[in-house]
Amino acid sequence: MEVSITEEVAPLIAERSSVIEGVVNYNGEKVINRSKYGGWKSASFIIGVEIAERFAYYGIACNLITYLTGPLHQSTAVAAENINIWSGFCSMLPLLGAFVADSVVGRFRTILVSSLLYVLGLGLLTLSAILPSLRPPDCKTTQESDTPCASPTALQITFFFSSLYLVAIAQGGHKPCVQAFGADQFDERHPQECKSKSSFFNWWYFGLCGGTAISLLIVTYIQENLSWALGFGIPCISMAIALIVFLLGTKTYRYSYLEDKKNPILRISQVLVASAKNWRANIPSVDSSKDEEESEKTSSRVGAHQFKFLDKALILVPVDGSRCEDQIVCTISQVEDTKVVLRLVPVWATCLIYAVVFAQSSTFFTKQGSTMDRSIGASFQIPAATLQVVISISIVILIPFYDRVFVPVARSLTGKPSGITMLQRIGSGLFLSIISMVLAAIVEKKRIQTALDFGLIDNPKATIPMSVWWLAPQYIFFGLSDVFTMIGLQEFFYDQVPDGLRSVGLSFYLSIFGVGSFLSSFLISIIEKITSAGGNQESWFSNNLNRAHLDYFYWLLAGLSGLELAIYIYFSKYYLYKKAASL
């Protein structure tokens, strides 16, 4: 009899072990078998979406400075500022998109709507390059008659930038949700899937860089040698394909949900408001046993001694004769989750200069390359923006080595599932970005000296007899730093936020690059005014790059990056991870 009971119960135990909490399938069923839904099968669809989306995005972004300074006839400094501002919005708008996803409509619906807007924005951008009424006349035609290039009309500028910012809005909803949705396909409470989730961030970035590399090799060549209309139209088609691929995986996805149905952002806001109202009250000694069940459910009980002023949100204080019963008292889990979010702020702030450095690869690096010898063979000349593919190639080569060789070796030495901690990974990338800036400054100095030696200093349109491949080392170190810092930041801001704020966490990571782009634009604007203030003095960002001083700007960024790394190391020493497993 005992044997028969065991045989009868065993399958039920096995079935329960495969059930995942906190997720449903596409029919809304809460009980999901892990072998049927989620995992690498579903994640592969989402990585495919990212490849197509990044192909589309970088098909526009990577060569934008060439379009602005070419067909739209903008100066180098103005074009760089416009790109930095647009890039800033692209990285800041995910905060809004993540809020909508985590608090209102969910990640799946947000991705769906954002994809449709993406296709619309790219379609309008293509239209602006096709219709003669929506673009200024070709400058080469006017030069034949010795007349200056015609400036674009207000309508042309408005239509182009409206289309461009519609892409930014769409990307704001798409970017944080797709990555969080992909990571949701793995159960962090399952030992094997926990390792797979960490590996997912590596292969996610691998796919991202693969899409970027293809775009840099194909789209930039088409834009500069065939047609800007076709160069904008191909990314539009790519984004439509991304939408189709995403929908194909609908029936295989795991969809996360909040068991308590409470808005996670509202929960944190209540803590901040309550602690502010009770700022004069004495901090209570928290008896965790009174909320034992809830404190066990929250994963952020470490570091309770930090931000103790938030503990005032646990107090009932009558105000203006009102009864205590009429007030909302925050729970221990609410307070601790708020502390988790605040602990992220120093890490966020100490990565801003890295984001400023990141902004240079698609602006000034490209303008440098446009002045150098880009010929391959007798007749073929590579577009300057194509050299950015070196970043993607270095990442694509290093990620498999990092995931399959470095992590297992480091894991055997440290005992940590990911080999090294997330903060160690981020810090390593910050150091590599300093090397990239130092190399950029040295190569730029040599480029200017070469122009001087060959008497080309006052001939900005002449090709400097210096191979564009001199820029390759700075691009390579840029790619190496991305493997460590970019992927580390993605995993860190996904893992260290409360469970209900995963999309918001990734939008925090993206906002680093939004603020960094704004800072880059601000720095360029200030330096432009200061260095061009003198009568005969050339600006650091002169349209004649042979008389500009981008090398000074790169040295400045290298120095700021060194200072940033020192501050980052200081704060990292005192950071307390949300989960003991992360240590």
Q: What is the compact description of this entry?
A:
This protein is mainly α and 583 residues long. 65% of the residues lie in helices and 2% in strands.
Q: In words, what does this structure look like?
A:
With 583 residues, the chain is mostly helical. The protein has helices spanning 2-17, 39-61, 64-69, 76-105, 107-130, 139-143, 154-183, 191-225, 228-248, 264-277, 292-297, 332-343, 345-349, 352-359, 364-370, 389-414, 422-453, 472-495, 502-531, 550-573, and strands at residues 23-24, 255-256, 372-373, 375-376, 380-381, 464-467. The protein has a two-stranded antiparallel sheet. The protein has a two-stranded parallel sheet with strand order 3-6. Helix 2 (39-61) runs antiparallel to helix 9 (228-248) and helix 10 packs across helix 12. The longest helix is centred in the middle third of the chain and has 35 residues, at 191-225. It is globular, with a radius of gyration of 26 Å.
